[in-house]
Design a protein that fits this description.
By secondary structure, this protein is an alpha/beta fold. It is built from eight helices and eight strands, in the order E-H-E-H-E-H-E-H-E-E-H-E-H-E-H-H. The protein is about 40% helix and about 20% strand. About 40% of the residues are buried. The model has no long low-confidence stretch (mean pLDDT about 95).
């Protein structure tokens, strides 16, 4: 079963309420919260995403899928745990060493939240292998993080396939999420490769009918 996590990054200012309700009606599985600090990536969406995520919690029961693209991971985890998210995903590249990775995994779990690890396009997939038994999801970035509306990097398909084989080899039950340049054309490739959670923003938000595109992405 493929799930869709809709990124709210490109939601137009002033149209948040209408868009969030429409996405819920269209049966998106998650609201994807792209948290950027202007340091780990160029863009800074920290305050905006916290405000939007807080608002979603007041008007919707749909789960929050929080993706931290930040240098100070612990502080961001503490901030967003207050919103009772379904899952918090942090970047492997933001950590100084393996000990920090394990500490962050445990900290998120201790706060009754699911945990994911994200990797950038240039990070070798093998670097995440040892952490797979301890997490609920691995997020493969199919664009360079930090900007919406980028073009999908086709060589990431092989990375997804490699991760899927490793997950099966370790006999694990974890989600494989992909984020970046996902539309109907690229979705079929990543699903075939083994991804089961698709993050899409622009492709959904610019569509006339959210339900049609979300249904097609799930098929």
């Amino acid at each position: 079963m493929v799930e869709v996590s809709t990124s709210i990054l490109s939601v137009k200012k002033g149209e948040e309420t209408k868009t969030f309700f429409a996405l819920e009606t269209a049966k998106t599985d998650y609201f994807h919260i792209d948290v950027m600090d202007g340091k780990f990536v160029e863009k800074n969406t920290y305050e905006k995403m916290f405000q939007n995520a807080s608002y979603i919690k007041r008007i919707s029961n749909l789960p929050l899928d929080v993706h931290l693209m930040v240098e100070d991971v612990k502080e961001a985890i503490e901030d967003f745990l207050a919103l009772d998210p379904n899952i918090i995903t942090f970047h492997l590249e933001a950590c100084q060493n393996k000990e920090e990775v394990y500490e962050l995994i445990q900290y998120i779990k201790n706060n009754n939240c699911r945990v994911g690890i994200a990797i950038k396009p240039n990070t070798k997939i093998e670097e995440v292998y040892e952490f797979l038994p301890y997490i609920h999801m691995c997020l493969i970035m199919t664009v360079e993080p930090g900007k919406g509306g980028q073009t999908f990097l086709t060589d990431m398909v092989e990375k997804i396939e490699t991760l899927k084989k490793q997950v099966e080899k370790q006999k694990l039950e974890i989600d494989i999420e992909v984020d970046g340049g996902i539309n109907l054309k690229t979705a079929s490739k990543v699903k075939k490769a083994g991804a089961n959670v698709l993050v899409a923003g622009t492709a959904i938000v610019v569509a006339k009918d959210f339900k049609v595109i979300i249904d097609e992405l799930k098929e």
